[in-house]
Design brief:
With 657 residues, the protein is an alpha+beta fold. It contains 19 helices and 22 strands. It is flat and about 85 Å long.
Amino acid sequence: MKKFQKILDSFSLQENLNPKVWDNYEDIDKATLKSEVRKKLLEIAEEFSDDLGDDVFIEDIVLMGSLANYNWSEFSDFDLHLLVDFGKYGEDEELYREIFELKKKEFNNKYDITIYGYDVEVYAQGADDEHSSSAVYSIMNDEWIQKPVKENAEIDFDFLKKKVKSWISKIDDTIETEDIDKMKSLKEKIKKYRKSGLEKEGEFSYENLVFKFLRRSEMIGKLFEAITKAKDKKLSIESKITEQSDRLFGSASVKIPADGAHAGQSGWASGNAWDIKAPIGEPVYAIADGTVKTFKDYGPKVRKTQGKKLFGIGFTVKSDNSLPDVYYTHLQNAQVQKGSKVKCGQLLGYVMDFPGSSYDHLHIGVEYGHNIREFLNDDGTLKCAKGEIEVTPKSKQKKQSNKDQQMVWNTLSDSVFLKKIMSYVKDGLYFEYTPGQKIPYEQPVEVIQSGLQFFGFSLPRYGVDGKFGPETQGAVKDFQSSVGLPQTGIFGVEDSKYLLAMLIQKGFTDSDLRGLQYDRDFGLESKNDQDFYQTLLTKLGAPVTNENMKFLLAWRQAEGKAGNFNPFNTTHKLENSTDFNSAGVQNYQTLDDGMYATLRTLTNGRYNCIVNGLINDIGAAEIAKCASLETWGTGDLVGKVISGYENGASIKSPSLR
């Protein structure tokens, strides 16, 4: 009861700012962070920024929350926010927000940092994002952005107590159910409850005070812990039954109930047959030794026979050791044939696309009167696995899992290339070759081609040219065949997932891209300047029009003095380029190299406004308004040059040679 009252008392305003944190804490107009506190917070922010990676655009580092206000207490912590300009990531903004959110959680979990007994929590927040804090201090500039105002909030503590006790009862009652879904739902309700209060009445809303009480009294922590324990319990029960069920699939989580029965996609129940949902291309493994006695390929289309839907490859394995025979179907790229000897854990084939349905799955059955439990020991391992498939102890599994996750995270966070492929998965991008149609240059295709070449799927004629033509289509088919995907030649989301997973597993780094075959032969050595601009437009997939040419010529004029064969002063480095100036602008050896570098820069995702403006031929003056010209470094100069043209000035675009 004392703690209950202690937490309630912590909501009262203090007379001054926290004296451990602030100099001149009695006078808000003179108050500044103590130098040792500011120095330490900047060190922490720098450490967190290093974790985020090199490509982070920090606008400011600020302190928010109760330690920047009069409502501090022993329960307070340092809310350290890095304000990031996410707009500079262009189309990848949401992807970077998600990555930084994961990094924030990882950083706060990894470090237990305190300053004068107060915990430090770091955040990566959008510089333009709305916030509900009534006090904000710029640590970077050592000044107030928003000074706190000491206004005693009228808190009805009796009303607050009732609200708090009501929520505590809800939490305790929900925890008692041990129902994960109910506990997760309550967690979300608490978050929404707090958010609504902050939006309506700010930090001293009853909703926010209730949330703070629940957090300070560790009730929220109790709920989170209960969710984790319930998950552990659920997974432990399932793992006892299906410890080795991952040998059915390469990665899918397969749940086989204790009695072995399974309700399929239509709700039917059977003791001897199961439809086990899995992604297209998922590898399928044998659950017993035996010999393939029947084998049939029904093809890619569904055939309805006697109420059954037949498609893909199906075969029966006559099991050894007195076990029932096993029938596997709806597979593609089978690794066995009639008469093949099969060993437990052997790769059999891959799950295929269920035509006209999203329920892609493996159908597996045993003889009538038998059950899949006959293949499993009491601990859930496969009977045939003795000495062949090692069951890793749970403690080692967890350590290995954490190690693998860290490896994956490090690989992803260090690679711009992998982040691009990750964004293609998220955006649902796909590419295909259509004979007879003009093949445009597309930057994602260049990324895909690079990934394919990395794994030896060669593009001998054109190399990495950013065009999805017949050569790339052939390489994609070879790639799909190698991983068990349908050989469509169309590169879609599933292909991106497989390519991403393979690159991560290989420990890929961006430096591995060096040496891949890129097409740099644009045939410009004997051409004039006009040909350069026209070729640039064509390679971007933009029409060669007067307005587009006007924009490029104005841009060249606005750049002024430029590097050799580098009309727009790109900083993209090639193996034989040299620095033109201290800003990193490059000198290139040939006009073809200059074209290649310019294309690579324009299509890196940060200049989509310019590229799309050219493609859509929106007019020179409109393209000149693109904010990405600021990113490039030219700013509003292009617009001024175009304005001069329209007022009668002649074009004075410097020569490219």
